[in-house]
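Collaborator request, handled under Task 6.
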Amino acid sequence: MHKHVDVLIVGAGISGIGAACHLQKNCPDRSYIILEGRDNIGGTWDLFRYPGIRSDSDMYTLGYAFKPWTQAKAIADGPSILSYLNETMNENDIEKNIRFGHHVNRAEWSSNESRWTVNATLKNGETETLTGNFLLMCSGYYDYDSGYTPDFPGVGEFSGEIAHPQKWTDDINYADKNVVVIGSGATAVTLVPELAKKARTVTMLQRSPTYMVAMPEEDAIANWLRRYLPGKLAYGITRWKNVLLGMYFFRLCRRKPERAKKMLLDRLKVELNDEGDIARYFTPSYNPWDQRLCLVPNGDLFDALNGGDVSIVTGHIEKFTSSGICLKSGAHLDADLIVTATGLNMQFFGKVQLTVDGKEIEAAECMTYKGMMIRDIPNLAFSMGYTNASWTLKCDLTCDYVCRLLNKMQEDGVTQACPRLKDPSVTAEAIMDFSSGYVTRAAGKIPQQGSKAPWKLYQNYALDIINLRYKSLEDNAMEFSNPAELEHATKNSENKKPSKAA
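Structure tokens returned to the collaborator:
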């Protein structure tokens, strides 16, 4: 059955649910549908089910600007975040507009009609076609189908179980087992102390160290403010406190990396019984924020290491054996269960093939406009969070901008808004200034940014508030048009008979 709406949203995770709330508040006369490939909302927080799953940033910034986080824990577990999203959905009566089990595989734009035609595959294999005037991609930036696992030699020889956290199931048994977790990123740091509660031994095998910082699960200032101030005010103050602290430290890391490095390593002296562990396991070769920092709530990983429940090994894998992993150093790690916390596969547009007036769009050939639209693609925005701060901060601003754009188009009687690159001095740059594996592996497969505004992605929340929430929508790049009116005027001109000479 064909269905037409004003706005088509792809994805019902944090971004998609937030987008629906913004539309209902700021564009109440606009119709929308959310297309979600899975059977539940939540995106990442519904997909990942591994032990200990939790946020890697505080909920005062990962939460929505319009819905205060009221729980005591600032670093929340996955089920709590999912509950928060369900609350948001129910309070705003959004579920009626979600189409579950609709996996979008193609979206075609027609300039003549000023609309997107989207094809979605249902679970029974049937397809459904929907159309909309605006397409908002809220599908994240990584592949939900599979995580990244290197081709380890000898994998077939291992007699135990191998699991990737992205595919974790409840029947994976780690109680009283020897477990090796490969990786030292956010997932590994979350898994290791949790697995150690039941496993016989847990070894975190890292190719290279990662910067880690311990933080309390609860924000004492936030909890104090909530006792004495109205909830929304307390939430707003805490949100800005955390935003500004995050911006300050990121700036320090980029401008004075050695000072930032010393601060991080000095904090570890308080957390670890053996200061030698800092040099052995927690001193990376790169500068802070060249890759993401890992948050360790309540220092649980350090406590497990201090208590002997966890060991860390830095080394390179030679091969898998029937009983574990042999390292290039000659050491052997015995294992019954190997967890490959080796990262994600990046992808843009949720594997949706975009077509503009019959031309297929390749993500790598795209340049982003204000970090949320694409050059030469009309009426499309994508929601992508910051790499140096909470995801939702940028998503909230993106939705604000899209609502402003939709309202302006309606007021001006135009049907299309499209970024055009008219400045020849703008050059293409990598969209993420990161050396993390998942970013470097995706080079050549994801969009780029430009060297100047409005094509440059600044990763700065305060600056984006000005640019996306308050600055004029009209600039030298955004092109507003109404092809239907133009075509009508052209036909009238062609049909108009020339006047007779006097």
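The cover message to the collaborator said: "The CA atoms of residues 413 and 482 lie 8 Å apart. The chain has two domains: 3-144+346-487, 155-340. Please let us know whether this matches your experimental observations."
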